[in-house]
# Entry
Amino acid sequence: MKKKLEAREAARKLARARKTETMEAAIRKAARQIPRGKVATYGQVAAAAGYPLHHRQVVQALRGAGGLLPWQRVLGAGGEIKLKHEAGAEQRFRLEMEGVRFKGKRVDMAAHQHIFRTWEL
DNA sequence: ATCCTGACCCAAG
DNA sequence: GCTTGGGCCAGGA
# Structure
């Protein structure tokens, strides 16, 4: 009885997990395309992954994947770093190490914005 | 099912 | 530059 319910619950959970995994995988794939010295916005990464309007999930994906991704190359609209305090300082530091130049508080997007290759979608 | 939250985005004033 | 309001979406309590 109870066992059956548990099994069903587990299956449901798995299906959900796999679904989101696909989306996150696509997002990670897109994020990985950003080369050193280049950057992209959350919205662009989401769109490049095939999920426009899912900029928020990009955050989830980046947080989850942790150090396996060039998370520092993903910025908010206008080239703004959206992280706070220490994390934000580290992101800026990492980018500067890659040669990314800042215009005040924002990244010089005109010079460093990565153009995603549409045929890789 | 509802409510809240988040490394968001954008147009207005 | 600023704040405000509205829109978007998935995940967790």
Remarks:
- Strands of chain A lie at 40-41, 74-75, 102-103, 106-107.
- Helices of chain A lie at 2-32, 42-48, 55-65, 85-97, 109-112.
- Residues 2-32 of chain A form the longest helix (31 residues).
